[in-house]
Amino acid sequence: MRLLHTSDWHLGRAFHRVSMLGAQAEFIGHLVTTVRERDVDAVVVSGDVYDRAVPPLTAVELFDDALHRLADLGVPTMMISGNHDSARRLGVGAGLIGRAGIHLRTEPSACGTPVVLRDAFGDVAFYGLPYLEPALVKDEFQVERAGHEAVLAAAMERVRADLAARARGTRSVVLTHAFVTGGQASDSERDITVGGVAAVPSGVFDGVDYVALGHLHGCQTITERVRYSGSPLAYSFSEAGHRKSMWLVDLDAEGSVTAERVDCPVPRPLARIRGPLEELLADAALAPHEEAWVEATLTDPVRPADPMARLTERFPHTLSLVFAPERAPEEPTVSYAGRLADRSDQQIAEDFVTHVRGAGPDEHEQAVLREAFDAVRADQAVREMAR
């Protein structure tokens, strides 16, 4: 059986305030084309279909379009809810939608109830384990300690119990949304540590043929049978080095796994550049990044004037500007109190300007600071007289 494993669509998400809806629609088209052209037997989507619990209408419309196009192909699709999704909202109409071959698994109580498909070699059981927030599901799984490992282990016990009762040779696929030990995180994933230690060992999933993971946005192989597809699009500059893709997985008659990466369309490359502003504007080696989405880190010791305007003249798609001035380190043996000793309010304020900007205030700025302090002192004097 041939599976197409994807996850973390995050429909409705923007990239530094740039709408990604068009790129997400292009990905859906690519997914449908891949299913048709590569003879895919089943699609698995391992959570975070939406970017937030109440998605914008445009995201819901795109999801609806994806469901219709997948159903028209006649290829069964399994989806679970992730930590960004509202499980209740995503699961509305699941029974009716299931009749069209789109199987939504959002209820923790259904972890041990698979969708069973059949190929020339027999049955393949697909178990959907939606994101399991420990504090919310500990009673369902009767665990004493509300932790990610405990609730996932209990859910997998249900999976293995159901699998053991099935015909010998039944192959198995588990969809789950979790942080598995050994995975590499990026900046765009929402923290799931609330409710217990986030990472769970891959051994929790022993006994099944393939585990289709969601949550981490980089495509990763934890073991040959346990993999993250990653997100189809980059959602932070920490993903600049990612190759966005899906897994095309073949399960043979014995349940052995062969996996191939299928690249996703890239709407615009990402680039992280770093250095003094003048060097970034003049460096010929940066020419390939002129059409990329850019995060620029300026290392000028003194913050330059109008840096974003000047950067966008060469890099028109600059979206993020970071200041990391390279300066001589301050004397570590001098305490904060020591640095303030015997200094006036005016001097302390001027030192702060110097620390933040890299250069002290000019005469006009000094006068503005002086006037501000004088006004505060005058106000305090009036208050004292009024008492």
From TrEMBL:
SbcCD cleaves DNA hairpin structures. These structures can inhibit DNA replication and are intermediates in certain DNA recombination reactions. The complex acts as a 3'->5' double strand exonuclease that can open hairpins. It also has a 5' single-strand endonuclease activity. The keyword Hydrolase applies. Transmembrane segments: none annotated. Heterodimer of SbcC and SbcD. Belongs to the SbcD family. Residues 1-218 form the Calcineurin-like phosphoesterase domain. The lineage of its organism: Bacteria, Bacillati, Actinomycetota, Actinomycetes, Kitasatosporales. This is Nuclease SbcCD subunit D. CDD domains: MPP_Mre11_N. Residues 267-355 form the Nuclease SbcCD subunit D C-terminal domain. GO terms for biological process: DNA recombination; DNA replication. Gene3D superfamilies: 3.60.21.10. GO terms for molecular function: 3'-5' exonuclease activity; endonuclease activity. It comes from the Bacteria. Keywords: DNA recombination, DNA replication, Endonuclease, Exonuclease, Hydrolase, Nuclease. It comes from Streptomyces chromofuscus. InterPro entries: Calcineurin-like_PHP, DNA_Repair-Maintenance_Comp, Metallo-depent_PP-like, Mre11_N, SbcD, SbcD_C. The keyword Nuclease applies. NCBIfam families: sbcd.
